[in-house]
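Hi team,

Filling in the usual template for the complex we talked about on Friday. All components are listed, including any nucleic acid strands or ligand strings, so the model treats them as one assembly.

SUBMITTER: L.P.
PURPOSE: interface mapping
COMPONENTS: two
RESIDUES: 842
SEQUENCES:
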Amino acid sequence: MGWADRIRFWAWPGELRQRGVLGINERNLRFVSRLNRRSLYDRVDDKSVTKAICEAHRIPVPQTYAVISRFGDIRKLGQFVGNRRQFVIKPACGAAGRGVLVIADSEGQQFVTSDGRKMSPAEVRYHLSTILSGLYSLGGGADKAIVEERIQRHPLMRELAVGGTPDVRIVVHQGIPAMAMLRLPTRQSVGRANLHQGAVGVGVDIRSGRTTRASHLNRSVDCHPDTGAILAGLEIPRWADALLIAANLSRALELGYIGVDIVLDAERGPIVLEANARPGLAIQIANASGLLSQLQDPMATLPLRARACAGLTRSP
Amino acid sequence: MAEQKKTAWIVGLLILLGIGAVAARLRWMHPARPNGDGAVWRIHYEIRFLSSQPGERVRIALPDNTPSCRILRESFSRTGIAMEAARTVRTQGRGLAVQGPAVPGKEFSFSVEFDVQIDPTAEPATPPKQKLTRLDRQHYLRSERRVQTNSPAVRKAQAALAGRQPKPEGLLRTIYHHCCAVLEGDDAAGRSDAEGALRDGMATALGRTRAMIALCRVSGIPARPVAGFVLKEGRAHEPVAWVEAYHDSRWIPYDPERGYAGHLPPYFLPVRRDGVEIVRPAGQDHVSAGVWADQMAPLPAGSQTARHAAARVLDLSRLPVGMQQTLAVLLLLPAGALITAVFRNVVGIQTFGTFSPALIALSFLYSDLRTGLAVFVLVLAIGLGLRGLLEKLKLLMVPRLSVLLTAVVLCLAAAVSVLDYVGLTPSVQAVVLPLVIMTMMIERFFIRREEDGLGSALKLFAGTMLVAACCLALLRWEQLGRIALHFPECELFLAAALLLVGRYSGYRLAELIRFRDLARTPTPGG
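RESULT (copied from the run log):
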């Protein structure tokens, strides 16, 4: 490797093409707009719809305690939650983790959030009303609030996390998992798992579920910028289940190109948080590999679909 | 790919259609197309001025259609000049107020052209009945620097004439006769003011006109000068002046120089009433104006059919000047959209909103770039500060945006007032357009900063301004605006280009940088 290769400011289009890198224009034209019907977008834009579809297809999701869509129902929160001490409130149409309230404990009348803040029931009810009035929804329109089970993080994830919950993003193309990465929140991303906000993306070998290499802000890194933990060579538990869940969700949603966000529960294993109809392209940097080489001609992969359904993954 | 093929077909079709339409226009449409007999004249205004006086406007009078003169076409050139079309209050004459940016010592030029067709068979119309208010009457009886109604020489001449014919109608005819026949004409030795002309008995063409106005006014008959053109072969085609006198509730035209009373021949084209200068302020060293008329080559026979008259709808250059200016800019907006599309989809520079760059460019079009930018950044900063305070109140979206809009409106109002105070009055277009864009930019900037940090927001802002600057350069390109106006079918080419960008599936330039690490690392697992 010469010096010219080590210090590079750009790549030539031919090089990227050769490595099978998918650009955003091509993603939109060839994959998103052809494989995802616009009329079905609601299935991923509204998390309550996604969850309903998941439940109908026996795909594991956090247990729903209530979907609140009317202001009158806000005061019934106590009934919905019952005597559970932990729960999560999130907007159905929110994006990038905004408006999510994690209640980690309830002490009598007081609630305690996951970052240790105390909240009165009135404050929680106010938060619910701001969600319903659309403060966090993408278009700013009226929204629904989902009250659901709090995921118990898997021990491995607890070690890696800095201020948030890591998740696994799997890009599914025509029912077949094509590429995966582990997204780790950092101090810079303030607990959120979005790569462009500073989270670390860790490439995951799609067949073995073993992490390969990592990227931070579009550049390759070896260890976590906050903890210094080595990120390559980790084994993601119950990987086959995660792949099966992602493939099944894609077919249940009838969307041909999606990103599925999965979290690992300590007991239940992989659980679907949400799906995205326009999955980002940074997953290529995390894996140091182009998506196009994975997204081959759909006709050629037809026999593979059957295997994906059976919980197997694509062979090289 | 099916979409690829379909798009290619439509692009080809659009280009063919565009070429066909341009060719058809070049072949069959002439810019000046009369639909009757008669000569066509082209009137030129060439105005140069030094914009040394901030806030000063140059006023230009424009002709209106008359029963015998029809304006076929108007065209104008503009270079960084703000202009407003307006009618004068008292005489309802059409006019333009032109104002250059206040850059001391810089010369601006501005030209207007009209094609006017004379209908020689038109019946002279009787002037309509008009009421004069007391103030108007006082105005038309006033004494002026060169129409000295209180001068003893004028009063003496009027008394001599009134002694012969005390009744107003007879007196008017006597005054006209006196100015037309008794005063001797001499362009070299004659006087050009009323007092001098009546005292010496020798007058220039203008002096004769002024003498008649002064005599009318002393006799209590409201009178005013008219500036215009005599579009007749064998005449000097400089603007000339004649008189209108108010009698029997009508403004009756008199031309003592060329000898017409009561009715003027069809080839008289009035341009400005109640004044002899077509461009004001004239004669000052920082404004120079050339105004003249040329007769145009006769049009080919058979070009006067009704079919062609209807086809004029397709000719945007026949519209009034102010409308043309607006249309030219509007027709360039799709080109701005194309620039934005190229920057976003081919280069990969992100902007706030899809059309904000083009609309921001539009608002800068008529304002001085430095003041415009200063106001823009100032309003943005104040808006962002306010938006930060609003965040604490946790308002719902629509009321929150409305509060921001209110703040932006207030800021712009304050900015306009301050600019006016220091003598840099911005034009109306520069103020109204960016309101909503500014509001949305503040909101998006703030949300972006909250979610992704200040750096990301600033990057987006820089991208927006870069694209806006390119759009501005395009909108300022005068020739392009003229082409768009004369060949609106060129929009078809733009649409074709937009379709091509819409099917561009290659890498964005920014992606070549973003994915640069992918080009060197080996594929995992071989």
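MY TAKE: Confidence is low (pLDDT under 50) at residues 298-307, 310-316 of chain A. The domain at 12-44+154-309 of chain A is CATH 3.30.470.20 (D-amino Acid Aminotransferase; Chain A, domain 1).

Thanks, L.
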